[in-house]
Each structure stands twice: as C-alpha cells, then as structure tokens.
Amino acid sequence: MLAARGAAGAEEGKDVTSSPPEPNSNMLVLSLFPGIGLLDRAFEEEGFCVVRGPDLLWGGDIKAFHPPGKFDGVIGGPPCQAFSTLARLNDSMRRNGKNIKLAENLIPEFERCVSEARPEWFLMENVPDAPMPDIAGYRICNRAIVDVWVGGVTSRHRRFSFGVAEGTNLYGLARFEIETLVLHSPNPLPAVTAASGGRSPRYHGERKMKRRYRGGEIYKRLSREEICLRQGLPEDFMKASPLTVEGLQRMVGNGVPLAMGRAVAQAVKRALADPVERVT
After folding, report:
1. Percent of the chain at pLDDT above 70?
2. Residue 210 gets which letter from DSSP?
3. Where does the chain show beta strands of DSSP type E?
4. Whole-prediction pTM
5. Where does the pLDDT of residue 25 fall: very low under 50, low under 70, confident under 90, or very high at 90 and above?
6. d(Cα 179, Cα 32) in Å, to the nearest integer?
7. From CA 230, how far away is CA 188, in angstroms rounded?
8. Closest C-alpha to 133, from 159, 157, 158, 161
9. How many CB atoms lie within 10 A of CB 100?
10. Which of 58, 99, 105 is CA-nearest to residue 77?
11. How many helices and strands, by DSSP H and E, does the chain display?
12. pLDDT tens track for 172-185
C-alpha cells in the first residue's frame, strides 16, 4: 500500500491514506507529445480535462504548433532517445560503421509551447540524463522514480520536472512529492521501450521463451499481451489493431506506464489542492 501522509497529526480512527483532494474545478490541461495518450489517461482519471496537441504519430508537427487559448497546465514527454542508453549504444555502433537514427531533441519545443501558453504549472517527463527544462518565469523542481516503486512491474526510470509560475504560491514546490510503495519487487521486469524492436532482455527466473542472441544478451520476443500488461494496460488493449507486434511496441513503449502516470498525476493533484495565493 502507498505510504500514509500526515499520519502524525491524524485523529484516531480516521483514514490517513484517503484519496487526494480535488483540484480546482474545470482545470484544462494541454498535452504535448501525447502519443497514444497514456500520461493523458492518468490525468483524466484524476479529474483533469486534457486537450491533446500534435504528435508525429498522427502526422502532427510540434514546430508548427502554437497553443491556442488559455490552459491551466501543460504536460508532456519530449522524445528521449538523444539522452537515453540508446544514444550511448549508437556511439559504440558508429565506431563499427553502423548508425541508429535517433529522434531529435525537442525539449526546446516543449519549453517554447509552455512559454507561449503561460500556464500556472507544467509537468515534463523524460529520462534522468535529459536536460532539465529552463523556462523564464517558472520555478521548477525534479523528482525521479522507477515504475516498480509506484505499483508498476518494470524497471522504467523517469524524471518528472514540475514547474509553477512565479508570482504564485502552491505551498511551495515541496508539495510536489510522488508517493512510493513501502515494499516493492527487487527484480522488476525490463521496461517496454519503443526502440527494442519487440524484444526484451531476459530477466531472472524466466523460462520457456523464444530466444535470440544480440549484443551479448539473451532476448525474448514479447507478445502483444505482455507488452500491454507491462505498461499497465489491459492485455486486450488494441487487440483489433492491424499493427504488428513491433509496431504495437513502438506505440505503447513510447508512453508512460499507467502506474507511474497515476502516481505523478496524483502528486500534481495534491500540489494544486490548496487555493493559489499570489505572492505580493
């Protein structure tokens, strides 16, 4: 179960693990780089109204996008390949005459869209080694978590940068804390990634798997059902889709695992629970 908050001051007999308080009503959130909307789904479950911006997956171009209207918050995860282990692997392969085409660093486009939209808060997801967002007029804090720490089943490691507009006081950025499990599995499953071509490194105790030797590691071919389950989705998610297993993994693997997204959305909800007070 999730760690209790405020247990020291709780009255006897009261539940200190109750759901987070409701955020301001009708909070409108713009989602950048939404993909198939896994992070959006987590925020929608917490009562936020999410509007999806353009994504390359659907033929959109973030560079041609300018946020229309007023948004309370902005969320999104720019492509992470340039700062992931894949980038380091590419450096090694390039020395051997091979090359992997990496996605462009689009963090500057995320920063531009936030600057244009001027929301009261934003949340950016990326790998721990990615540059932190730097947006004038915002105070920012960072929290890194692993999927299995928050109820997921994989080793996916991500950093979340939460920013609030200067001139507001949401009881300090310290209110943005992602609750983690008291106990979790010491042997999480390998994360589903978009770049692994439908394969996943073997994990301890796994048997009866189709194997392929690649780069010194034994890989297993993931099924459609396992790809979805590792991301926290129903095993029949997109069952009727014409996508190949590799295509499904590229789509689903780009998303934030649902357990991780839910924990982060709840953390944002708690941070926004108290009325916004202007700093004079």
Report:
1. 69
2. -
3. 28-32, 49-52, 73-76, 121-126, 138-146, 157-165, 168-169, 199-201, 211-214, 217-221, 277-278
4. 0.79
5. low
6. 25
7. 10
8. 161
9. 13
10. 105
11. 6, 11
12. 677 899 999 999 99
